[in-house]
Amino acid sequence: MARPISLELPPRDTSEELRNRLDQAPVEHAAALLGAYEVLQQLHDHGILDLLRGLLGASDKLVETAVDATKSDEAVRAIRNAIILGKMLGAIDPDVLQGVAVAMGETLGCQKPVIEPPGLFSLLSQFRQPELRRSMALLNKFLDTLGTQLRSRGNCP
């Protein structure tokens, strides 16, 4: 009957392997290490490392202060309003907003505001322009929707 061949491997010394890899690392990664040292030096020169050390040391106090600040009614309303404004901006078609921005720039940007109000006949002649009527229809739709919302929320008589 055949006898099994005994195979005894010496125990693996992982600490020695790690030490060898660590000894070779500066040679293999010299450029990366030099770049990292430069970044660390710049962070130190500008005081950012001290700032980070202070932030880590005072992290509990910072979290406590932030939580206390968000507990007020004003902060809650501000956060809710910011979310609503974000939704509102997300709902606007970028082409429409671009048109509003161009119209604002052309109307208020380059020229002095009109000091004398236009006459009645001048106003009536402006109503013949389809662009004016289109923009007035848009404003009317906005004001109508705003009034409906105010009435439904009980903010308006």
How many strands appear in the DSSP assignment?
0
**Helix amount, in percent?**
over 70%
Largest sheet descriptor:
none
**What is the terminal separation in angstroms?**
106 Å
Low-confidence stretches: none
Q: Approximately how much beta-strand content do the residues carry?
A: under 5%
Count, helices: 8
Shape: elongated
Taking all Cα atoms into account, the compactness measure Rg is 35 Å
- Helix-strand pattern: HHHHHHHH
Averaging pLDDT over every residue, what do you get?
A: 85
Structural class: mainly alpha
Would you give an account of this structure?
This protein starts with 13 loop residues before the first helix and ends with a helix. The protein has helices at residues 14-28, 30-45, 48-57, 59-70, 73-91, 94-109, 120-126, 130-153. With 157 residues, the chain is an all-alpha fold. The protein is elongated.
Summarize the structure.
The chain contains eight helices and no strands. With 157 residues, it is mainly α. The radius of gyration is 35 Å and the shape is elongated.
List keywords for this structure.
157 residues; mainly alpha; 0% strand; elongated
Q: Can you lay out the helices and strands and say which pair or pack?
A:
Layout: H1 14-28, H2 30-45, H3 48-57, H4 59-70, H5 73-91, H6 94-109, H7 120-126, H8 130-153
